[in-house]
Amino acid sequence: xxxxxxxxxxxxxxxxxxxxxxxxxxxxxxxxxxxxxxxxxxxxxxxxxxxxxxxxxxxxxxxxxxxxxxxxxxxxxxxxxxxxxxxxxxxxxxxxxxxxxxxxxxxxxxxxxxxxxxxxxxxxxxxxxxxxxxxxxxxxxxxxxxxxxxxxxxxxxxxxxxxxxxxxxxxxxxxxxxxxxxxxxxxxxxxxxxxxxxxxxxxxxxxxxxxxxxxxxxxxxxxxxxxxxxxxxxxxxxxxxxxxxxxxxxxxxxxxxxxxxxxxxxxxxxxxxxxxxxxxxxxxxxxxxxxxxxxxxxxxxxxxxxxxxxxxxxxxxxxxxxxxxxxxxxxxxxxxxxxxxxxxxxxxxxxxxxxxxxxxxxxxxxxxxxxxxxxxxxxxxxxxxxxxxxxxxxxxxxxxxxxxxxxxxxxxx
Length: 413
Fold this sequence. Notes:
Layout (H helix, E strand, L loop, with lengths): L3 H9 L15 H22 L7 H6 L3 H4 L1 H20 L5 H21 L3 H15 L6 H8 L2 H32 L2 H22 L13 H12 L2 H29 L7 H5 L5 H18 L1 H18 L5 H29 L4 H51 L8
């Protein structure tokens, strides 16, 4: 999900050696740019998460176990993590529009390759490449908006982009589950790939060219110095670890909830299972509360409440009641989005200069948590069932809670 810290970094990165020509909020160009970035957010996040409701189908089709099936998502987010780090630097020397369009089109084509994959190895390879090429979208989209949209109208444009990412993440999950139930997961992947090709073309046709950005290079050594500087900042390291724990719980719970609900005593079909991803809507609403909670109660208190809520949600999922299980997943979702908002905004407040580099590192740790724990959770599921998965995610929540408790008053900004 896009990071509030990236917006601040993007604003600071706007060149000052030439006159700024803003896109006005009441103009046709503003509407075109807003909808273009909505399409970018929708396409990229639907492609990333479209396999999550399909994970229970892969073991039967390819003769693999649950942990191996989860690699279809973990390899994508892992490649995305490193691609965002690299794209943040690469985006300084190429056209914003060209980079985003190329990323979207290549990722959509990769999804078509996934649908055509004749073996598990080819499917994983295509998913890994898909994640890598998608790194060009989140690394650039918010910077484009901050550079081109007049400050008074930036919030509206940014809100539409963030809405696109949230909508894409939910539709990618729910839509794939519904479509695969009536056709097959291959046809569903083809359909999404074609839809995202169309979204990429629409994006290219709608987005006005950059007028306030001039490509400029920065030596590799400078990037490395800035990343080392941020990694030596204790406040940032706490936030990076918190981001890792948040996404470790969130991804692992959703990955293996699909397997749990497909088996006894629930025996839910793909359509019913895909409905659990509608709880994502609760997160979309609660994410806006994270910033307000930080302003009112402080970042430390907000993060403590976050992990307490997540831990309570994990405990509730241990019941065999389907209703209470959905309630537990809802609590985890609400806690995750509030915590993610609080942690990501804290990166900008704690990083000083070179905020974009700090934000890129946050996303690196964030997606590593989704990739590694999301995969490792499969081992716990295979050997200990849902109780073991709950134990793993509870441990992650407790680690996050302990880290939140170590925040000091000067790190509350």
